[in-house]
Design brief:
Radius of gyration of chain A: 21 Å
Oligomer: homodimer
Structural class of chain A: mainly alpha
Largest interface: A-B, 41 and 42 residues
Number of helices of chain A: 7
Strand content of chain A: 5-15%
Largest sheet of chain A: 3 strands, antiparallel
Shape of chain A: elongated
Number of strands of chain A: 3
Distance between the termini of chain A: 38 Å
DNA sequence: ACTTTGGTTCGGAACTAACCGAACTAAAAG
DNA sequence: CTTTTAGTTCGGTTAGTTCCGAACCAAAGT
């Protein structure tokens, strides 16, 4: 493997690891992002990343799991191989689902505040938490329309 | 420790772990979020979470590290103990620094696109990536003013 | 029917991270 | 100067993860 690619892929990998994936998963994503054409066979990935079939198999499946869907595969008639590629559709969807992320933090923080209020705990601190919550809520309220705005802008092009 | 709190704290912990902290760090944050008054001594945390002094020490220090600053401590004259609490100030700041997060993904994606263009790799895929990048850029552009808007709204209250 | 191909599953080795107890340090109290 | 208190550092254990090779399976080719 060429060196510039290698460095790149590791860089992508590091970023991906922070999203909670294994190093190899990250490298797979990296490889697919740099690939030309932008898809690779199972075998190709193995040799390209010099990783074992088992590891590749496991990590591909993780990346294709429900709720992850970072990659997908397609087949061509008269060819048994699978061709794996980044699922850009799901990537965009993931971005658009970003508010969902806020929703979780939001819920938890609400619960904490509720707990503190119910149990009459120190209220200055609770008030401060409420301020943070209000920020989450603000974002949660605004993000969808912001995303929508972007979509409209795209359509016009 | 009371049971409702325990469940709660674990729940907070799980969420925090996803941000890349250890379980114990998460539990410390949880404990401090529920505490009344909203601060605890070193010893208090140890017994409350039934964890060792060493672990607590390490994790407190991690949570106080530069670039993290999730918690802070204060002291009272004539008392050698430290009182630890959530640093709400830094928490808010962290939120406002959210665009920074986008910046990193953005940069990496730009690099990938640049690589693909330079090396004349399949351009349909590259174009699709550019679309995603444009979303990142859009967010990066809009988030600051959105955050600013919220701040103005807060001041008026 | 036998082989080849594409991929999965299983069991274990190597590594990593979290946590603990014990020994230690620094500073205040007596 | 001795003791106590508050917290840190060190070394080892345990738990969990990642990855590999080998065995395996299912479908297609011969």
């Amino acid at each position: 493997m060429e060196n510039r690619q290698k460095v790149f892929i590791e860089k992508i990998g590091v970023r991906t690891e922070k999203m909670g994936y294994s190093p190899l998963s990250g490298r797979i994503l990296g490889a697919l992002l740099l690939a030309d054409p932008p898809h690779m066979t199972f075998d190709h990935i193995c040799t390209y990343l010099s990783a074992s079939k088992s590891s590749i198999s496991n990590n591909l499946n993780i990346l294709m799991r429900d709720g992850v869907n970072m990659i997908e595969y397609f087949t061509v008639p008269g060819d048994r191989k699978r061709y794996f590629r980044i699922s850009l559709q799901n990537w965009s969807k993931h971005l658009k689902d970003m508010p969902q992320e806020f929703e979780y933090s939001n819920e938890l923080l609400s619960d904490i505040i509720e707990y503190r209020t119910e149990n009459k705990l120190e209220s200055k601190f609770t008030t401060d938490l409420e301020k943070i919550l209000s920020f989450y809520n603000f974002m949660l309220e605004r993000l969808p329309s912001l995303i929508n705005e972007w979509e409209q802008q795209q359509l016009k092009k």
